[in-house]
Specification:
The structure is a single chain. By secondary structure, this protein is mainly alpha-helical. It is built from 14 helices and no strands. Helix 2 packs across helix 3. The longest helix is centred in the first third of the chain and has 48 residues. The radius of gyration is 22 Å and the shape is globular. The N and C termini lie far apart (about 75 Å).
Length: about 325
């Protein structure tokens, strides 16, 4: 007498086998991408830490003081923006915690930093997904400055109250500074490896189980408003939830696998250059009292304008 397995049990075995196959497929390229990202991020972080210790960042900030005054910001605010350009939002908030800024000033800075942060690492990612590096750097810096002027004009004065941001001690001694950096770098490395691996496993599962097409259909109406093709759905989700740095492996893999053309990826890059990481980074600023609507909506509007402008320019060309 032949044994016939229960259909539900057989389906479970097939599902688990397929799931395990997805994990085995995704882990090796995930680790390779994570190592690439760590090699890029950690030296930059150390370099900026040393430049800050030597006073180089302060000299550059002093040079930028007059321009920041036109954006309704005190000269010291340029330190926040410069830190964000080379590092991340965590670092920018750490500098904010040392300055007597109002909610209005922090809101303007937040939008500028959210547009133009971690430029070296994130530009490298966008170059690997089909965009020209200098285009992305120019776009992000110019839109960050433009947003500063626009928000200084638009933001109501009611936000001018002081922010209740806890002051964090900053060591002026070299060895404690390096020790603090090393601890932060270790935690960052762990975060990169874990997030990149989990994300690429998720990406492979969505692909193997045919869920990417479903996600594309779900977000297609919203992407149409932004002027983006539906093929960019998965990468748009990744960029908005995890950001460019942590989501880089998945985005590069999508282009490499031919799931999205370099033209569409470049179009998406123009959008996410201005508006990405709309989960963690927004929550970080919200935690110090910044109104979320003022740091989300303007960037989405600017991003849509840039994409539609690029499409119109290409059409006329």
């Amino acid at each position: 007498m032949k044994f016939h397995p229960h259909p539900l049990r057989l389906s479970t075995v097939i599902f688990l086998d397929k799931l395990l196959g997805s994990i085995k497929t995704a882990v090796p390229p995930a680790l390779k991408s994570a190592i690439w990202l760590v090699k890029l991020t950690i030296p930059i972080s150390l370099g900026v830490t040393l430049l800050n210790y030597l006073g180089v960042v302060g000299v550059v900030a002093e040079f930028l003081n007059p321009a920041f005054g036109l954006m309704g910001l005190p000269g010291e605010a340029s330190l926040v923006f410069i830190t964000a350009i080379f590092l991340n939002i965590y670092s920018a908030i750490a500098v904010i915690s040392q300055l007597p800024l109002s909610i209005r000033e922090i809101t303007i800075l937040a939008v500028m930093c959210l547009i133009a942060h971690n430029l070296i690492v994130e530009t490298a990612v966008q170059m690997k997904t089909g965009s020209k590096g200098w285009h992305m750097v120019t776009l992000r810096l110019s839109m960050a400055v433009l947003s500063g002027f626009m928000l200084n004009w638009m933001l109501p004065e009611v936000f001018s109250r002081s922010a209740a941001v806890a002051k964090t001690p900053v060591s002026s001694s070299f060895f404690p500074l390096i020790q603090n950096w090393a601890e932060a770098a270790f935690l960052l490395t762990l975060k990169i490896v874990i997030l990149v691996t989990l994300l690429m496993v998720l990406q492979q599962i969505l692909k193997d189980f045919g869920l990417i097409k479903w996600l594309s259909r779900l977000f297609q109406p919203l992407l149409s408003v932004f002027g983006l093709p539906h093929s960019t759905s998965f990468m748009w989700i990744v960029a908005n939830t995890l950001g460019l740095a942590y989501g880089s492996a998945a985005m590069v893999q999508e282009v490499k696998n031919g799931n999205i053309s370099t033209h569409d990826a470049d179009l998406l890059n123009h959008h996410i250059a201005i508006s990405h990481s709309n989960l963690e980074d927004l929550l970080l600023f919200a935690a110090i009292g910044v109104p979320v609507a003022w740091i989300l909506v303007p960037r989405l509007v600017f991003a849509a304008m840039v994409v539609w402008g690029k499409k119109l320019y290409s059409y006329k060309g």
